[in-house]
């Protein structure tokens, strides 16, 4: 389990202090998908960065993040590095910003394996091809030797997911992973997350502003606004009986948009 306890994050920018998270607490279990929803600036991505311990140097963090009974703050830098990729991985919103344009897809997956496992390059290649098959990249042998610019947006996102899951982490943090994709490809990616949850017992934290995405795959939902957690519960509870006025507005705006097409 990942436990986030009273997490506060602020940024000192020039003479101004910006409070990104104001005492947020939640958990993520293995074998479930938890969605964090809210508009831009609500603190969703900052929560992911805090869990991955990749906040910028000018950030101030308070509270506790506990991964399988280990407090992140008690770990050394090397232990944290091993945690990232082995225990927890992250899928970012824009794959083109993550993938190295000068390396083939296969090289980038292999690099991730060799950073965490003591295996030969040939063994790493086999593991990489297996991960590409796992995330349903067609013709993995061919794609292995291709560069990012040779892939479609959907295939690039699958490649990023392959990098994230190749070391079989227990937890996957996905930050707006379908925003840049069309509806059909988005649905395929969401179905892939569901399969990872079911087949690997993976816990997935899904960051999104799209309630349609939440309804599609999530088991629980957390509603955030301006750095605060306003409401949480099972998806059916939140959709059928929202308690907070902000949650009701989110749901009504979704209904309005769907009726306008």
TrEMBL record:
GO biological process terms held by the UniProt record: peptide transport
A single cellular component GO annotation: plasma membrane
InterPro entries reported for this sequence: AAA+_ATPase, ABC_Ni/Peptide_Import, ABC_transporter-like_ATP-bd, Oligopep_ABC_C, P-loop_NTPase
Primary localization class, coarse: membrane
Domain ABC transporter: from-to ranges: 2-251
Record's bilayer topology term: Peripheral membrane protein
Keywords (A to Z) from UniProt: ATP-binding, Cell membrane, Membrane, Nucleotide-binding, Transport
Source organism, top-level taxon: Bacteria
Localization: Cell inner membrane
GO MF term (any one): ATP hydrolysis activity
Similarity field: Belongs to the ABC transporter superfamily.
Name under which the protein is recorded: Dipeptide transport ATP-binding protein DppD
């Amino acid at each position: 389990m990942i436990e986030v306890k009273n997490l506060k994050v602020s940024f000192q920018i020039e003479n101004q202090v910006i409070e990104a998270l104001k005492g947020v607490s939640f958990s993520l279990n293995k074998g479930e998908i938890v969605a964090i929803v809210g508009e831009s600036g609500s603190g969703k991505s900052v929560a992911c960065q805090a869990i991955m311990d990749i906040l910028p140097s000018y950030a101030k963090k308070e509270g506790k993040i506990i991964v399988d009974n280990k407090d992140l703050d008690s770990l050394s830098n090397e232990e944290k590095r091993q945690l990232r990729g082995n225990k927890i991985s992250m899928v970012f919103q824009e794959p083109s910003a993550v993938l190295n344009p000068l390396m083939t897809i296969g090289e980038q997956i292999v690099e991730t394996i060799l950073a965490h496992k003591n295996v030969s390059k040939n063994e790493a290649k086999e593991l990489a091809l297996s991960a590409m098959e796992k995330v349903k990249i067609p013709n993995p042998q061919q794609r292995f030797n291709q560069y990012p610019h040779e892939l479609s947006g959907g295939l690039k996102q699958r490649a990023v997911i392959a990098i994230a899951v190749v070391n079989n982490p227990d937890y996957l943090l996905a930050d707006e992973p379908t925003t840049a994709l069309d509806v059909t490809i988005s649905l395929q990616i969401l179905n892939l997350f569901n399969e990872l949850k079911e087949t690997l017992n993976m816990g997935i934290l899904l960051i999104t502003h799209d309630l349609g995405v939440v309804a599609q795959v999530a088991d629980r939902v957390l509603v955030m606004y301006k750095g605060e957690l306003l409401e949480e519960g099972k998806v059916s509870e939140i959709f059928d009986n929202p308690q907070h006025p902000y949650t009701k507005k989110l749901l009504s705006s979704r209904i309005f948009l769907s009726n306008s097409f």
